Amino acid sequence: RTGSPCLEIEGLIHDVGPIAAEGGRMKRVLAGVDLTAYAGQVTVLLGVNGAGKTTTLECAQGLRRRTGGFIRLLGEDPQTAGADLRARVGVMLQDGGLPPSARPIALLKHVAGMYRNPLPVDELAERLGLDQFSGTNIRRLSGGQKQRVALAAALVGRPEVVFLDEPSAGLDPQSRQVVFDLIHELRAQGLGIILTTHLLDDAERLADWVAILDRGHIVAEGTVAELLGGATQAARRMTVR
Ligand code: ATP
Questions:
Q1: Tens-digit pLDDT profile for the chain (241 aa)?
Q2: DSSP designation for 81
Q3: Which end of the chain is more exposed for a tag (fewer CB within 10 A), N or C?
Q4: How far apart are CA 170 and CA 147, in angstroms?
Q5: Is the ipTM of this complex over 0.85?
Q6: In the structure, which protein residues have their CB atom closer than 6 angstroms to any atom of ligand 1?
Q7: What separation in Å is there between the alpha carbon of 36 and the centre of ligand 1?
Q8: How does this protein lie in the membrane (predicted)?
């Protein structure tokens, strides 16, 4: 892969606990994750529930303290960086992170007001089909509508890198297409996009690079074609005698 890295992770270890149900022991959630993401590319962390995708994103954003390893986000350590770095990074809040009594456009305008050079809120809202809900409280929106508000909030500050946790969750096929088109467009503008999914189809449609995470380890990585080619070859080896 070429270009400039926007995120470099080496040997990331993250332990949680002590866990009472496991006899007071610590639990190793990430056991040495290596991942590099580039500007102008979509890097996908693919894995089943519980693989450690969200934890990896949270460590990369400095929301969780790592137990070990090295992380550079836009050249800085996210754990010690300040507001300057946060202003350059877009974060997609999950449902629970959106204030339920706010209205979508008002919330987006509020978020936009925190950045120096935000995207025009009305255009972004229209693009994501949110303009029709301008008078509706967030708590009354469907899961997919909330998901689009969260995506808009992550993008409105014109970030250089954005973390999207399961961006296609809860979206109907049409909204999914709208969101995917927007992701492609932002990638073409040079945004570094790191997203998680448990759907191979999302990876096939979006990824320049896929890293497969399983129980806290990256077990394979490459382009979709390389990974699927590899899977096909492995399947062939098992079936052709
Ligand atoms: P999902 O899509 O279900 O969120 P994920 O791949 O994002 O899956 P994580 O949320 O990163 O997975 O969680 C990885 C594992 O670590 C899970 O088994 C989770 O229960 C465990 N885990 C993470 N944080 C904690 C914690 N603070 N205490 C106990 N277990 C934790």
A1: 778 999 999 999 999 999 999 899 999 999 999 999 999 999 999 999 999 999 999 999 999 999 999 999 999 999 999 999 999 999 886 656 889 999 999 999 999 998 999 999 999 999 999 999 989 999 999 888 998 999 999 999 999 999 999 999 889 898 899 999 999 999 999 999 999 999 999 999 999 999 999 999 999 999 999 988 765 565 555 554 3
A2: -
A3: C
A4: 7
A5: yes
A6: 16, 19, 27, 29, 47, 49-55
A7: 21
A8: Peripheral membrane protein
